[in-house]
Amino acid sequence: MPHVLIIEDSYLFGEFVADAATLAGAGSIEVAESQAAAERAAARRAPDLIIADVCLRHGTGTAAVARIAADGVAAPVLYLTAHPDRCPSGGRVIAKPVSHDRLRLTIAEAFANHATPHRQR
């Protein structure tokens, strides 16, 4: 079952996203509240899907995703943000606010459309 890394600095919204991911079929989830925490989490266990907010209190989700990819983790990315204009190309963007059903369906679709990624060295 897929492992999901959620990069979100709002505890309540992180739980909202984690619940949607669980219902979509995630086998395990880790929520990181900062760029550095996200990078450490991905180093411990490569995610099969990354769901990232763009603006964090400490760092940015986009910088975390770039660093994780540079470290060899090939995982699809869903940017879940109130700032879609700040998202780089290469990931799917979902604007906040988002309904739980739409988020769950989008995550399930991401699982279905992507083979389990791996570290590329």
Automatic annotation (TrEMBL):
Domain of life according to the entry: Bacteria
Pfam families in alphabetical order: Response_reg (PF00072)
Keyword Cell membrane: no
The organism of origin for this protein: Sphingomonas kyungheensis
Keyword Phosphoprotein tagged: yes
InterPro entries linked to this entry: CheY-like_superfamily, Sig_transdc_resp-reg_receiver
Entry keyword set: Phosphoprotein
Coiled-coil intervals, chain numbering: none
Location of the Response regulatory domain: 3-111
Record's protein name: Response regulator
4-aspartylphosphate sites (modified residues): 53
